[in-house]
Write a structure and sequence with these properties.
This protein is mainly α. The protein has one domain. It is built from five helices and three strands. Helix 2 (39-47) packs across helix 5 (88-107), helix 3 crosses helix 4 and helix 3 crosses helix 5. The radius of gyration is 13 Å and the shape is globular.
Length: 119
């Protein structure tokens, strides 16, 4: 996974498909809503490797949805399937990398064009 420092974006390859992960405020809101847990608590769980498969799939999905180009299709079921196909050991690697993306979003944050500040 390669993280772009200025925007906190990362790229991840699942199977043979590359996804751009963009940690926007909208993505963070959707992750919290989808999982029913706050981002800080989610980060703590991921750091402890105490997560559900669903957690990884929703995080990757919402960040990939924000990073998708015009007309690019992103499907949560496909992301989940690709994560599962990579196996448990690789999921642990993804969890660590997704914590880095979440930390990047929380520390520097990426600014959505025209979006209001969450403060």
């Amino acid at each position: 996974m390669d993280i772009t420092k200025t925007r906190g974006e990362a790229s991840i390859t699942l199977g043979s498909r590359a996804f751009k992960l963009r940690p926007t405020f909208t993505a963070l809101e959707r992750i919290e809503e989808s999982l029913g847990i706050g981002i800080l608590d989610l980060c703590a769980r991921l750091r402890r490797l105490d997560f559900r498969f669903k957690d990884l799939s929703y995080i990757a999905y919402h960040f990939a949805l924000e990073g998708a180009g015009p007309g690019e299709r992103v499907d949560r079921q496909e992301i989940g399937r690709l994560l599962m196909e990579d196996g448990l050991e690789q999921m642990m690697v993804y969890a660590v990398e997704l914590v880095k993306v979440l930390n990047s979003a929380l520390s520097a944050g990426s600014k959505e064009a025209g979006a209001a500040s969450p403060n």
